[in-house]
Amino acid sequence: MQPMSPNSLSADTEAARGDLYASRQKVHPKAVKGFYRSLKNATLWGFLVLYHFTPLLPWAREGDKPDQAILFDIPGERIYLFNLEIWPQDIYILSALMIIAAIGLFVSATLIGRAWCGFACFQTVWTDLFMKVEAWIEGDRNARIRLDKAPNSMNKTIKRIAKHSVWLAISCFFALSFLWYFHDPLTITKDLFQANLTGWTLATFATMAGMTYMMAGFAREQVCFYMCPYGRFQGVMFDDHSKVITYQDWRGEGRAKPGKSRDFSDRGHCVDCSLCVQACPTGIDIRDGQQMECIGCGLCIDACDTVMQKFNLPTSLITYDSAYNIQQASKGEATQNPLLRPRVLVYITILLVTIIAAIASINMRAETTVSILRDRAPFFVKLSSGQIQNAYTIRLINKSTQDRNYTLHLIGLANPTVRIIGQKDDKLHLKAGEVGTFRMIVKSDLPGNTQARLPIHVQFSDPEKNDIQIAETLFIGPQH
To answer: Residue 428: in which H helix or E strand, if any?
Structure first.
């Protein structure tokens, strides 16, 4: 038997391989009007304003702290979220916020499908904005398709340069707004226009601008198809009552062109106009059923409703509805829209518990954080008097908005002598929001029956604020 040559593959195999490695077909969404398009416009401009102008909101704070409402102060190792100040030691707060956001997304998916993807996702918002610029400069769907196929000309070149120039301007403004969350907006804006951005700041600006330009201008729906994991595991969060974009095939099939008679008595309501496909920003046909690529934006609903109105047919042939209701409607039976279902209740319970735990953690967190590191070289020093000396490094953090004076007291040693290097007294003085590092020398007698490694506790107290913190360490001596 002769081995099969690559050239002897069947036509079906070639077609299958061609589909598997098919290159991207550019999607040219058609502009539509309707409720969901208006809702997308409202969320588009609302989220753009929210994102770009939130770091410009002032927020009065005591002392010399920044007056931005939201600031990720990397050099100062702080995150300011309105009245909340997060230190590196409070990373659990950020973890709780991320868990809350994730569970909130699960609740949203269970109730209303991929509405987050269709209306609020950053990729959706900026892609929608870039598409508006594209339609404004190059025209609607048919005009853009003709322009793509047209040979190079002065008119085509001018339109393409104008489009990409606006895209780049939007991308740069987005990148600049991103930097506002990490620096003073006025200062960083001046540095940009004076070409003073350097180092990681410049790298961040270039990365954010470039990624926005590429993702919203070129990748678009490919991000949803191949890069975003959410679409791939959304199915496990749906149940039979989850509201998703659905095509009522029981009413629409069999589809056919309307014909001259416009008689829909013995046929489906779908006129096979393909406007739902043309309006879809990901280019799918919702009539083929629920698909991973559907982002739940509802533009196909607006397109279909417009056609139904032209033929005096009931709207909502494509609608936001649940699989259960579609099945019930096909039988002529009553539909249901239960909100508090077992899955939703589980998600809401987890969400509420996480929120309560986060609030409790914030309210109960200590205003003073202390850590003690004992010197390892040498482990100890035996003095001529017979006493043993250990040295320690104290890191003390005052998270409060007031200056603090801490008194230090050792527990576990008999008659210890404590000296803070550089301090005139035995108190540790810290300003509001200050991190202090101190060197502590401890001398003590160790009786013959004492272990070489003696656990001790160091108590830091501020009597004026009734604040007491205790740190544990070791006092090392010679082995007896």
So the answer is: strand 427-430
Q: Where are the alpha helices (DSSP H) in 28-153?
A: 35-53, 91-112, 115, 122-138, 141-149
DSSP 27: P
Position 251, amino acid: R
| Phi, psi dihedrals of residue 293, rounded to the nearest 5° | -75, -15
What pLDDT is recorded for position 14?
A: 44
Asked if 80 and 73 count as a contact pair (C-beta separation under 8 A), the reply is yes
* Percent of the chain residues past pLDDT 70, beyond the cut: 94
Q: CB count, 10 Å around CB of 171?
A: 22
DSSP assignment letter at 108: H
Q: Which residue has the tokens 């953690």?
A: 361
Q: The tokens of 264 are what?
A: 């829909």
C-alpha closest to that of 234 among 296, 288, 285? 296
Distance (Å, whole) CA 422 – CA 32? 73
Alpha-carbon torsion (297, 132, 54, 46), positive or negative = negative
CA dist., res. 157 & res. 136, Å (int): 16
Cis (ω within 30 of 0) for the bond into 412?
A: no
Distance CA 182, CA 87 (A): 15
Which of residues 185 and 16 earns the better pLDDT score?
A: 185
* Torsion sign (Cα): 199, 205, 209, 214: positive
d(CA 428, CA 309) in angstroms, rounded, equals 77
**What is the CA 27 to chain-centroid distance, rounded?**
26
Q: Is the pLDDT of residue 467 over 80?
A: no
Supply φ then ψ for residue 282, to 5 degrees: -105, -5
Model confidence at 184: pLDDT above 70: yes
